[in-house]
Amino acid sequence: MSAYILRRLLLMIPTILGIMIVSFILIQFAPGGPVERIIAQLQGTEVSATARIGGSGSGDFATQAQMSGADNSINSKYRGAQGLDPEFIKSLEKQFGFDKPAHERFAKMIWDYARFDFGESYFRDVSVLSLIAEKLPVSISLGLWTTLITYLISIPLGIKKAIRDGTPFDTWTSGAIIIGYAVPGFLFAVFLIVLFSGGSYWSIFPLRGLTSDGWETFSVARKIVDYLWHIILPVTAMVIGAFATTSLLTKNSFLDEIKKQYVMTARAKGLSENQVLYGHVFRNAMLIIIAGFPGAFIGAFFTGSLLIEQIFSLDGLGLLSFESIVNRDYPVVFATLYIFGLLGLVMTLISDLTYTWVDPRIDFETREV
């Protein structure tokens, strides 16, 4: 097993490198960028205000931008840069690192990331790691609770549906699952707000935030209650649509196993239905469910929470990544891609190792990676 783990760890290096290369090409060379954003602000076409960049405020940029009359040929590659001082454009390129060739920028980024040095945000006076750490509580809360509750509902429901396949219970639950899967989670979120957050009916749950004001001064018991009070609606909105796939996958997996010869043999030996189901079928049927856990966790932890974060005013990693892409804040964009790519690979390895716990007959030492 140790040799297999070592091979998988070594395989992570080219995998994460490939992810970063593709991401660098797609994002770094896409139209627009931090230089263009500053130019758009100076020309009055950017709506949002930019925080201090490299210690200089936008007023300093505006002052420098008035110095024109020199050769503007350097500005031709930036849309809207006509009339701005070429030296000012060069200073922006140097500030953001665009004065170096693309391969040098990429090599430096990979070297820094290998040491977990993610630098500072382009448009915020804070390190990228500090920024990510600030958003983690929201994303961990949404991802962890959503994944946990989804599996706690899906697995027993899927097993029950497999046992009672074709009965009215199976039919009605399948209908409810399909409806939950078909309706987007953000629509459920809006419905829950209207119903339970003072929209039109009851005002039971808070509308925004992860905790109440003054949470730091609460007792431990009150902190737990307040936290759960805030997280109920967003997690419910995410869970309603999330458990459909896992429930049906669990049902189909159990149905496939129940029809196999070893189940008939176990029943012929006089084993009870529970012994057959949970002593033999369960560990085989659960393999495919375990295989989907990393993707489900990462999806709920990161990408799956973007709209929910916006609706419930929760400032998490999903919203941070979206805003960073829109604002071309490359250090934050690439850092989140790197961290979650690495996390996904680690979770996949953990998932494979869990196979051996569920079914000790699996031997990864004889398997080629």
Mean pLDDT: 76
Structural Rg: 26 Å
SSE order = HHHHHHHHHHHHHHH
Q: Could you give the count of β-strands?
A: 0
Description:
The chain is an all-alpha fold and 369 residues long. It has 15 helices and no strands. It has helices at 2-28, 34-42, 58-65, 86-96, 102-114, 128-163, 168-182, 185-196, 220-258, 261-268, 273-291, 293-301, 306-311, 317-326, 330-358.
Kindly list the characteristics that best describe this protein.
369 residues; mainly alpha
What does this entry show, briefly?
It is built from 15 helices and no strands. The chain has 369 residues and is mostly helical. The longest helix is centred in the middle third of the chain and has 39 residues, at 220-258.
Chart the SSEs and their pairings:
Elements (H helix, E strand, L loop, with lengths): L1 H27 L5 H9 L15 H8 L20 H11 L5 H13 L13 H36 L4 H15 L2 H12 L23 H39 L2 H8 L4 H19 L1 H9 L4 H6 L5 H10 L3 H29 L11
Helix pairs in contact: 1-15, 6-9, 6-12, 6-15, 7-9, 8-9, 9-11, 11-15, 12-15, 14-15
